[in-house]
Amino acid sequence: MMASSYNAKEEDRHQPGATGHVGSGTMTNKMPDNTAFKQQRLPAWQPILTAGTVLPAFFVIGLLFIPIGVGLFVTSNNIKEFEIDYTGVDMSSPCYSCSQSYSWNNTKSCTCSVPFSLDQPFESNVFMYYGLSNFYQNHRRYVKSRDDSQLNGDKTSLQSPSKECEPYRSSDKPIAPCGAIANSLFNDTLELYYIDPNGSRTAIPLVKKGIAWWTDKHVKFRNPSGNNNLTVVFQGTSKPVNWRKPVFELDPSDSDNNGFINEDFIVWMRTAALPTFRKLYRIIQKKPNNMTPTLPRGEYILEVTYNYPVRSFDGRKRMILSAISWMGGKNPFLGIAYITVGSVCFCLGLVLLSIHYRYGKRNSADISS
Amino acid sequence: MYIFTQRPGPSLIATVTTDVSCSNIHTHTPRPHCDWCAGEEYWVDSRTVYIGHKEPPPAAEAYIPQRYPDNRIVSSKYTLWNFIPKNLFEQFRRIANFYFLLIFLVQLIIDTPTSPVTSGLPLFFVITVTAIKQGYEDWLRHKADCSINECPVDMVQQGTVVRTQSSKLRVGDVVMVREDETFPCDLILLSSSRGDGTCYVTTTSLDGESSHKTYYAVPDTMAFKTEQEVDSLHATIECEQPQPDLYKFVGRINIYKEREDPIARPLGAENLLLRGATLKNTGHIYAVAIYTGMDTKMALNYQSKSQKRSAVEKSMNAFLIVYLCILISKAVINTVLKYAWQWSADRDEPWYNHRTEIDRERHVVIRAFTDFLAFMVLFNYIIPVSMYVTVEMQKFLGSYFIAWDKDMYDEELGVGAQVNTSDLNEELGQVEYVFTDKTGTLTENNMEFIECCVDGHVYIPHAICNGQILSAASSIDMIDSSPGGYRRHEDLFFRALCLCHTVQAKEEETVDSIKRGIHLGKPTSFYISSSPDEVALVEGMKRLGYTYLRLKDSHMEILNKDDEIERFELLHVLNFDSVRRRMSVIVKSSSGNTHSYKQHLIHIIMDRNSEIQMYTIKPRADTSIFPRVVSGKVEQVRARVEQNAVEGLRTLCVAYRSLSPAEYEEACHQLSDAKLALKDREQRLAQAYDLIERDFTLLGATAVEDRLQEKAADTIESLQKAGMKVWVLTGDKMETAAATCYASKLFRRSTQILELTKKRTEEQSLHDVLFDLSRTVLRQRSLSGLSVECQDYGLIIDGATLSAVLKPSPESSGSGNYREIFLEICRNCSAVLCCRMAPLQKAQIVKLIKASKEHPITLAIGDGANDVSMILEAHVGIGIMGKEGRQAARNSDYAIPKFKHLKKMLLVHGHFYYIRIAELVQYFFYKNVCFIFPQFLYQFFCGFSQQPLYDTAYLTLYNISFTSLPILLYSLIEKHISIEMLKRDPTLFEPIILFLDVAKNALLRWPVFLYWTCLGLFNACIFFFGAYFLFDNTTFTSNGQMFGNWTFGTLVFTVLVFTVTLKLALDTHHWTWINHFVIWGSLLFYVIFSLLWGGIIWPFLNYQRMYYVFMQMLSSGPAWLGIILLIAISLLPDVVKKVLCRTLWPTATERAQVGRTELCTDPYDMGLCIIMLKHEVMAADECHNNGPQDLVTVSLCIQIAIDKMQLCSLSVAYACLYHSPTATIGHSVYNVDIRKSLTHMTPYLGLISEDFSSMPVAIEVEHLPTEVG
C-alpha cells in the first residue's frame, strides 16, 4: 500500500508514472490476452522489394508512361499559341511613347496599336491572356493585402476594412475594394482587329464571361446586398488610389459583371504563384458556322489602351492567344517528363532484369557445380 | 560523549519544518539543521528523542525540545494553487517545449508569415495533454497521501490509548501497533505482547522479502505490558539522523530510573521497526517513534532514480542540432538574400506594393532582425513538436506490447514482464554486453540439499519420492559402521546445522508467504528464511533425522534421531555478512536428556562447562575457513568441497569451537561493547567477530545444488550468437561459478580459459599475468584473419584481482595502464566470469565497460538486492522477479519473471523497437525536410517575402494529422522480419548477422541520416520544381482559367503528402489490416479534409483563400497527371536504391526476409539449402502454433524434412542448414566449413545420430563443391 503510493513518485519527466500502471496492471492480471494484436501476430502481407518483384512494376510504369508522355507531348505540340510583347521597351515598339509618357495622373489614356500576323489559323475557341513578368503578385505583403469578407459583401468590412489592407485601407473614406491587390488591378484594355486582305478592320468579338472561376464569381465574391443600385451600396467608400473609376463603374453595361463580381477584377484577385504569370483576359469563341477558323491566318492589330505601368520595376506586358486542349495550354514539360520517366523506368527494368538473371543464376550454379 | 550545544531555536526550526512539509521529496534533504551548525560536527550525526516527551532528570543532559517534521507523507508535487505555474515551469524546462514556446511568442509579437495558431495549437495541445496527465497522477498521489496520512494510529498518552491520525504522530510519541497493522513511522520496539520481547515483521513492501523477520526489544523495556507501564518509562534515545540504508541503524537508549544511574543500551537495526513493514504473529507492540514523515527510511529510499537516456535519444538530439543549424542557416541565407535582392527601391517597394508608414519608419536593422525571425518561424516546422509527441507515444504504447507478451508470462509466478521505464525500449536491441548475476538469475535459487561430508564420510539423503524419504542404504551403512569417535563429530555436525541458521519454523496454516514447505507425509511445519540455502540445509537435516522444531524463549529445540527433544540456549547470533562470509551462533546446551549417548555428548561439553559454538561459512564456503581451523580432517573435507564446487554445487563448511566460561565472558563482553558503540559499530563488531571466530574444529561440509534455470543455456547461447558478450558476475567462488558457466554453455569445452585470479597473481606479478594474457589473446587475433575457426577465450577474474587491476598503478607506466590491457583482454574473450564480486564491484565492472572507448551499451540482469547497484549502473537494468525479493525488479527498468525471457526481450522486442524507432526518427526528419524545403525554394520566387507556400491549415495539420498516424502505427507494429526468424534457434542460423545490422546504433548513424536528408531534399526539389514547370507560364485547365499561388501550394502539398505516406508504405514490411487502414485512411482523410476545407466559406476565417482551390485542382487533368508523375519520380530513386542494395549487397536481415517469403516458393530452383530453410521455417511456425517451441519439436520437423529429401546427401543438407541465410542468396556454399557446421549441429545429433554415424566422411567430401576457392 505504502509502496504503491511511492511508486508513483518514481516517475520521470518523460514518462510519468503511467508506465508503472502497465506493470502493476500485469502484476494483478492473470495471463496476458492471447489475441493476435497483443501478441503482435496479426496476419500480414509481407511484401519485399526485390529485383524480381519490382521488375514488372518498372516495366508496367515504363509502358504506361511512355504512351501517356507521347500523347501529352503531341497534344501540347498541336496547341497553337501566339504571344506578343507590347510593353514598349524598344524605341521601335508602337507602345514606346505610351510607356514613356506614362504617369498616374494622366487623365487621357494613351493608346497604341500593335500589328501582328498569325501564320496558322486558330481553329477552336481561343483564349486571350495578358501576361506580366517580374510582377510579384506572390509577395507576402501583397498576397495578404485584401479583405475577403469585404469582397464577400460584408457591410461592416465595407465600412472598416481589415487591417491587412494597409496602406491601401482608407484614403479619407474606407477604400472598397481595399488592399494592394485590388489597388493594382490590371487596367489596360486590349482589343483585337482582323485586317482583311482588302485592308478593312474587323473587330473580333471578345467574350468577357467565364474567365473567372464559377465559384469565385458566384460565391466567394459578392456585392454588398440590400440595393440593386451599386452606387448607393458603395456610398461612403472611396475608390482605390490607383483606380480611375470606382468599383461600381467597372462594367456599367452589365450589372452582373459590376462591382466586386466583375470578372476581370476577380481574375486579378487570384494572386499568381510566380512572378511571371498570365491571366485570362477574354475568350474568342468559335464561330457557330464551324466553317471558318476562329482566328484565320492573316494580319491583326492589337489595340492597347495603355494604362498599366510596368517599366518602373522592369516588368513586361504580353498578350497571349492560346488554344486549349483537354490538358490545358501549351506545356511540353509534362509530356517530356512522362516520356523521360517512362524510359528511365524501362531502362531500369532492363538493368534489374540482368541483375536478377545474373545473381539468380549464380546461386544455383554454385550448387550444381 | 557528544556535546550538544548551539541547538537551533524552535522558531527557526519551525520554519524549516514547514519548508520540509511542502517541498517535494526529491529536493528534501534530511539535514535541516546544518545551516546553524557548521562547526558542530557531532551534532549533525545524531538526534535525541525523549520518549513520551518527558524531560530527562536534571542530572542528565538539559532537556531541549526538538522539532522534527510531522508524520505527514507528501509525495505529491503540486497543490491546487501552484499546479498551473509549477507544471508549466516544469514543462517549459524541456528544451523542445521552450523552443516551441519561443516560436509561438515570436509569432505573436512580430508580423510573421504564418498565424500563431499554427504553432500555438499543437503546443497548446501537447502542454495540455501532459498537464492533464501529470495532474491526474498528482491527484492520485494526493489521494494516496491522504489515505496514508489519515490512517488511524493508536498512541499512548498519559497511560491510555488514544486514537489519532497517522499524520499527527510526532517524534517521541509512544505508539501501539496491533497485529497485521503497518507501522506508521520508524519505531524503536519497546515491548511486545510476546513474553520474550520479540515481534515478527514482514518487510514485503519495503524490500520484497516475504519471510518473517524477528525484531527485539531492549531487555530493560520488554517487560512493559500495559499502557500505564509503558507510560512510566523515562528514557531518551540517541540515534543517528535518518539514513536511507534500510539495514543499518545505530542508536542508544538511556533509561532513567529513580535514584539510579541511567542505563544505556545499544540499539541496532534489530530494534528498529520500519515504516511500511507489517506486524505479524504478534498481538501488539509498544514502540516509540523516532523518524517520522519524510525522515523515515522508506521515504528516504524512494527518491527518484536518475534518468537513463537511450542511444537513440542521443542521436535524435544530435540530429536536432543539425536541423537547428540548417534552420538558422536557411533563415540567415534568406535574410541576406532578401536584402541583397531588394536593394533597389523598385524591387523593395514597387508601386503596387507599398509598405505601411510604420514599417517604413523602422530601422533597417530591426527590420532585418524581424525578417530573420519571420524566416525562422516560416521554417520552424522542420523541427516538429509532433516528433516528440510521437516518440513518446511510441515508447509509451510500445511498452504495452512487452507487458502483453504471453511468451514472457510465467505461469508459476503468475506474472508477466513489467515495464518500469519505457524510454529504453529500443536500447534493448542495442545491447552489446550482458552482465548477469548467477544465483537466482542463471540458476533457480531453489536449493536442494545434495550431500554432506563429515570428516571425509559422505552422506547422501536420497531424493524424496512420493512424500517419503528413501534413505540410501550406503549412507546408513556408513553411519552404522563408523567408529564412535567420528560419530561424535557426526552428531555435532548435524546439530550444528540445525542450530546455526536464521530459519523460522512455521505452522502450515499460518503461513501466508509464497515459500514452499517441505511436503512430508504429515505436513507439520514449514521453514521460512531469507536464505534458501538455510532452508535447504535444515530440510536436509530433517531428512537425515535431525528436525529443527522452533525457537522458544531463546532456546532452540531439536528433535533428534531418537525422537527426543534437545534444547539449546541461543546466546548470540553472529549474523552473516558478505565481508566475513560466515555466520556463527553461540549456544549453550542444556541437560535433561536421559539417553546415554546424548548424555555422553552433553557431558563432554558440560565437563568443560562450555558453550558450543557452531560455525558455518555461509552461503559459500571457500578456503577462507581453513585458516581458522585448528583441527579436523581438513584435507579430506577440502578435497570434497573442491570436488563439489567443480560440479557446480554450493558448498558450506561447518566447524565448531568450545568456549570456556572465561572465554565466553570475554567474547560476550567484546560483543556487547561493540554493540553498544555508537560510532564505528560495524568495524568494532567485525573485530569482535574476528576474535571469537577462530581456532575451530572442522566438522565437515555440505553441498547444496542450485539448479540452472530453465533454458538458461539456450538463452545465453542465443545472446552470444547475437553478438552480445555475456559476463557472469557473481559473489560465488570460482569453482562453483565456473561449473555453472560450463553448464550454461557460457564456456564450452573448446573454450580456452584464461585465469586472472588471486591464486595466479600470487605466483606472478599482476603485471606479468596481464601481459601474458594479452599476448595470448592478441596472437590469436592476428591468426584469426586467416583461419575460419577462431579460438574462443573465456576469462575468469576474481574480485581481489579486479580491484588490483582497477587500482591506479603506482608505477610510472600510467594509472590507466592495467585497465587498458584488461579491457583489451576482455574484448577478445567471448565470455567473462567474474567471481567473488562484492555488489559494488559489480557496478564497477559495468561502469568500466561503459566507459571503455567504444562506449558499448550494457545490460545488467539480476534478481537480488546485491544486483541493484549494477542494475542502476548499466544502460538497461533488468530485474528478475525472483525469490530474493523484488528489490531488483523495483529498481530495474524492466522486470521479467525468468532469465529465459531475456531472449525474447532482447532479440525480439529490443530488435523490433530499435528498427521501429530508428525509422520513426529518420522518417520524421525526412518528412519535414520534404515539407519545409519547398517553402525555402519558394522564397526565391516570391522576392524573399516569407510568403508561405501552403495554407495555414496544411501547415498546422501536416504533422498532426495527415502524416502522423501512419508512422506512429509503423513504429508500433512494424515487423521487418518474423518473430520466429529473430528467435530461431541459434544453432540453425546465425542471427548474429541480423543483429550486426543494427548494432552500434547502425540505423541512426550519420551516413544513414545523410541519406534520408538527401532523399528529403531531392524529393522537395522534385515537388517544387515539378510544380514550377507545370505552372510555368501556362494554363492548366481545359477551360482556360488560371490557377493562383494557393493552387500551386496545394499541388505541392498534395504530392508531398502522398509521396511521404507512400514512402512509408514502401518501407513497411508487415501489412496488417491496421496498416492498410491507417495509411490509406490518412490519405483519404487528407483528401476529405481538403475538400471540406475548400468547400465552404468558413465564417470564422478572415480569409477565404482556399475556397474551392482543391476541387478546382482536381478538376484539371494535367494536375492529376502531374501529381502522379511527381510522386513516381520522388519514389523512384529510393525504390531503385533499395532493390539494388538488396540484390547486390544484401544485409542479413534482407536475406532472412527473402528466405522467409520468396525463395521458399521455388525450392527446387534454388537447391537444397532453401528446402531446408523452408522446412525450418515451417517447423518454427508449426511449433509456434503447437505451443512451446522447443528443440525437439523443431528438430523432429527437420527430421521429416530430411526424410523427404531422399536424393540428397545428408551432410550437404546439414551444411546448408547451418549456413542457409548465406546460401539462399547464393553468395556461395564455398564458405561452408562442413566440420564447423557439424559441430553446430550437435543438438540434433542425438536424434539423427544413426544416420549421421553411418555416413562416411568420403561422402561428405564428395558432395562438396570440388574446386574450393
TrEMBL record, chain A:
Membrane-spanning parts: 48-74, 333-355
A Pfam cross-reference name: CDC50
Region entry Disordered, spans: 1-30, 146-171
Location in or out of the cell: Apical cell membrane; Cytoplasmic vesicle, Secretory vesicle membrane; Golgi apparatus; Membrane
GO annotation, cellular component aspect: apical plasma membrane; endoplasmic reticulum; Golgi apparatus; transport vesicle membrane
One biological process term in Gene Ontology: phospholipid translocation
InterPro entries xref list: CDC50/LEM3_fam
Name used for this protein in its record: Cell cycle control protein
Lineage: Eukaryota, Metazoa, Chordata, Craniata, Vertebrata
Gene of this entry: LOC110498060
UniProtKB/TrEMBL annotation, chain B:
Top EC category: translocase
Single GO MF descriptor: ATP binding
Boundaries of every P-type ATPase N-terminal domain copy: 65-119
Localization per Swiss-Prot or TrEMBL: Cell membrane; Early endosome; Endoplasmic reticulum membrane; Membrane
Residues that hold Mg(2+) according to the record: D437, T439, D863, D867
GO biological process assignments: phospholipid translocation
Keywords linked to the UniProt accession: ATP-binding, Cell membrane, Endoplasmic reticulum, Endosome, Lipid transport, Magnesium, Membrane, Metal-binding, Nucleotide-binding, Phosphoprotein, Translocase, Transmembrane, Transmembrane helix, Transport
Residues covered by the P-type ATPase C-terminal domain: 889-1147
InterPro entries in the cross-refs: ATPase_P-typ_cyto_dom_N, ATPase_P-typ_P_site, ATPase_P-typ_TM_dom_sf, ATPase_P-typ_transduc_dom_A_sf, ATPase_P-type_domA, HAD-like_sf, HAD_sf, P-type_ATPase_IV
Binding site for ATP: D437, K438, T439, E534, F576, K618, R650, T730, G731, D732, R836, K842, N866, D867
This enzyme's EC code(s): 7.6.2.1
One Pfam family named in its UniProt record: Cation_ATPase
Protein name, UniProt field: Phospholipid-transporting ATPase
